[in-house]
Write a structure and sequence with these properties.
With about 550 residues, the protein is an alpha+beta fold. The protein is built from 19 helices and 18 strands. A seven-stranded antiparallel beta sheet has the order 15-12-14-13-17-18-16, with helices on both faces. A five-stranded antiparallel beta sheet has the order 5-6-10-8-9. It has a four-stranded mixed beta sheet with strand order 1-2-4-3. The model has no long low-confidence stretch (mean pLDDT about 95). It binds flavin-adenine dinucleotide. The site of flavin-adenine dinucleotide has 37 residues, from strand 3, helix 7 and strand 10.
């Protein structure tokens, strides 16, 4: 985190992550490992995405009167109905979305993509959409993995996607209070660049950091890799402006208040159902001048997670804190094994048997401070028989931590099914829940006549519990979406039945909607519907997402 900021990466191509010519190559070690798991040479399959002209788009022209009204607000060039714009906004970046895009299926594309310049234009666009019976899908970075940006029209005559990229820039900075207001369409790296000019950081680094926006983080209650130090995104937001079909709401703004229920909390996680978040005010922190990297090995996932629990409950947590199970450790170490020190780490791990890797990062103003924090954490790590590995193992993880989405594109090209899911629960239930979900997924693959690898890690920890993040890798086969759909359903049922939340940070979208009543009850859903009804009586905002 102390290194110079890299340039803001290009936006994603419609069929994958980042620029078309980004490096997506798998290392030799990675190829060999994967080949062994799949039982075939990885490059035996080669399925590149179809060309843009071959993508199937629904013929759904906007009514000329609606188009003219939208163009009168944002300008003709900002109402896009060309194939590229529609295909780019047909979905997010889940496995399902990418398989469909690569195969040329853009059935969930919007009729048009509208790019407003400011909150005033957003308000006018919402008015036009309500008048012309058009559903509205807010679109930040389009990195949703739960169907949040599919252009569903619901009962409406048409659907437009509102791309918020022009709501950009640092709108206001209060260096004394250390708060910053950003346009909702600002992506993670741009926000960091703007804050770095004032020697500040947000400290929000989800794996989707390169592409996702601050408005999207707020709308989905995102959580970044440094959440144990800097907090979840919803901890960072102080205020937001939301433009709804019934008018503008400004929520939050005080460091603390007892003025009734927090309306800001209603907006955080609202997934576009209440309106469009047009700006967010966040708390910033001093940019760290030093980062300490440590890697530790534990003999079991139980011991690794017990160490994390002790760190959390003794309030000696690092800023980044991540425990992998044995399966994930094996893959991580192999992938990072190119550097000499990482290889030495691997050798030491072999002496432990089936080790579990823990990565810890501390940020601070100088090395003395981060060293002192690391020293304070040591008793919790040694109490659970942790063994220190070379710091290079943790540095290798940090260097590659935004790389996985690029590799996923290559895996999809090679006929590999790869997808992730996540949940959270109390410490006492963490290891049993992980086992139940893993079993549910593996059983679903076996019922399909195949097998898969399930890797698990904990990367967001609290005093009372932690998140679980599972990565599933298997053979895509002839019906990849059917195969994944069955596994995901089994996993979701296991999560709900074994006391986990249906989502810790990916949000609800379409994919988790059916499970939300289990979590908040039918009365809770009625309350959400009532809130949406108050600000959006014609229900044009993002139909089909979060609740039905
Ligand atoms: C490879 C990969 C890794 C990921 N890693 C993480 C991770 O580490 N942590 C994490 O929390 N998530 C992660 N995600 C999930 C995703 O990045 C987050 O949900 C992110 O917060 C979405 O931001 P976005 O700008 O891309 O929003 P979008 O995908 O554009 O939208 C997400 C939802 O929010 C709504 N929305 C977006 N902007 C606004 C707005 N301004 N106003 C109202 N509604 C809006 C959309 O309508 C949609 O329902 C990952 C996704 C991918 C593909």
């Amino acid at each position: 985190m102390t290194s110079e900021l890299p340039p803001v990466p290009p936006r994603s191509v419609w069929w994958g992550w980042g620029a078309a010519d980004a490096d997506r190559s798998l290392s030799g070690a990675g190829l060999a490992l994967l080949g062994r798991e799949l039982g075939r040479p990885v490059d035996a399959v080669d399925e590149p995405p179809v060309d843009l002209p071959a993508v199937r788009l629904p013929e759904r022209p906007l009514a000329p009167s609606a188009r003219a009204a939208l163009a009168a607000v944002v300008g003709e060039e900002h109402v896009r109905t060309d194939a590229e714009a529609r295909v780019e906004h047909a979905g997010g970046k889940s496995y399902r979305d990418l398989v469909r895009a690569r195969g040329g299926d853009a059935d969930e594309a919007p009729d048009a993509v509208v790019l407003p310049a400011d909150a005033d234009q957003v308000a006018q666009v919402l008015r036009v959409c309500a008048e012309h019976d058009l559903a509205v899908v807010p679109f930040g970075g389009g990195t949703s993995v739960v169907g949040g940006v599919q252009a569903l029209r619901g009962d409406h005559a048409g659907v437009v996607t509102l791309d918020l990229r022009r709501l950009d820039g640092l709108v206001d900075l209060d260096p004394v209070s250390r708060t910053a207001t950003f346009g909702a369409g600002v992506r993670g790296p741009e926000a960091e660049r703007l804050l770095a000019a004032h020697d500040l950081t947000l400290g929000h680094f989800p794996q989707s950091f390169e592409q996702a926006t601050l408005g999207g983080f707020a709308a989905t209650r995102s959580s970044g890799q440094a959440s144990s130090g800097y907090g979840r995104f919803d901890d960072m937001v102080l205020a937001a402006t939301v433009v709804t079909p019934e008018g503008e709401l400004r929520v939050g703004g005080f460091p603390g208040t007892a003025a009734g229920p927090a309306l800001l909390d209603l907006v955080l996680g609202s997934e576009g159902r209440l309106g469009v978040i047009t700006d967010v005010t966040v708390r910033a922190r001093p940019r760290p001048a030093a980062t300490r990297h440590e890697a530790w090995a534990f003999a079991s996932f139980e011991e690794a997670t017990a160490a994390l629990r002790q760190l959390a409950q003794s309030r000696t947590l690092p800023d980044v804190c991540r425990a992998s199970d044995a399966e994930e450790t094996r893959v991580t170490l192999r992938m990072a094994g190119r550097s000499g020190a990482a290889l030495r780490g691997l050798t030491r791990l072999r002496r432990i048997g089936d080790p579990c890797l823990v990565i810890l990062l501390w940020d601070g103003p100088d090395s003395k401070t981060v060293d002192a924090r690391a020293a304070a954490a040591r008793p919790a790590l040694t109490a659970h028989h942790g063994r220190r590995l070379p710091g290079a193992v943790a540095r290798a993880w940090a260097a590659h931590r935004f790389g996985a989405p690029y590799l996923r594109d290559e895996l999809l090209r090679r006929g590999v099914l790869v997808e992730t899911l996540e949940t959270a629960t109390g410490w006492s239930n963490l290891v049993p829940l992980a086992a139940a979900v893993r079993t549910a997924i593996s059983d679903a693959f076996v019922a399909d006549g195949t097998r898969c690898v399930v890797q698990t890690h904990v990367s967001h920890v609290y005093e009372t519990g932690a998140s679980l993040y599972l990565t599933v890798i298997g053979e895509a086969g002839d019906d990849p979406l059917g195969r994944w759909g069955r596994a995901k359903e089994a996993a979701s049922r296991a999560i709900v039945e074994h006391g986990g939340t249906i989502t810790h940070h990916h949000a609800v979208g379409v994919d988790h909607r059916a499970y939300l009543p289990d979590e908040v009850g039918e009365l809770g859903i009625r309350l959400l519907r009532a809130a949406a009804g108050a600000v959006d009586p014609q229900a044009v905002m993002n139909p089909g997402k979060l609740f039905s």
